[in-house]
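Human:
Focus on the backbone:
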Amino acid sequence: MNKSYIYLDGKVIIEDENNNKTLTEYYDNLDEVLIQENLIETMEKRIKELEQEMETYKNCSGKRYIPVILPFTILLSTIGTPIVIKFLAGFEPFNYPIDAAFGTTNLAMCMIPIVLSISTIPFGALAEICQYITYKDSIKKEKAIISEMDFLNKEIEKGKEHLEKLKQEKVKNNENTEFRTVKVNDLQYLEALKSYLKLYSDLGYNYEKYYHFYQEGQLDQKLEKLYSVKNIKLAKEYFEEKGPTLIKK
């Protein structure tokens, strides 16, 4: 990342975040070039981060959810019942006879199935629900990453074209001969990029919900407290371009 440069006699020494220095010629749009380079570098770094994150959620949306915990809990309870009954049958209190509708039995035969079911199945059901919520969240996160990466890839391509154009426009019409140190003022541009990344990540994560709002003509109303008018317009263009395709993925 370009942090600053020192101007001296038509030359500039550019310093990056690691204190590496590069000597080059001065030109009027040098600041624009350095800012554009920083934006491209930031986007490329973010893509690498997203690629690593993607390994965690890769192909989540292509997999059907198969319940495992609850069926296993029920099976364990079913298998465990006769084992526990047999074990407790050797204790006198559990051999107490009880008259039931289907005949005479003992306390262990009556109580153990009920106790095991109450103590295991509800927890199994709760764990299954939590697992399903995690599964659905993973799908949303995968879509958020895809959405953000699509935006970044397009912006990097446009950014490189713009950078090349800036470099072709090098002129020295407004050269200031005074010695000076200039900080690369990229904060505004990086903050704008950050807001766009947040927008496209959110559009991917909440795609189904937002796309429904878009179809119903309620997107402006639902997003007005979260985003600017410009970003809401970008959101509309996003849904107009993609339609239901991301849901299908």
Remarks:
- The helical segments are 30-57, 69-88, 107-168, 187-205, 207-215, 219-223, 229-242, 245-248.
- The two ends are 36 Å apart (CA to CA).
- The mean pLDDT is 83.
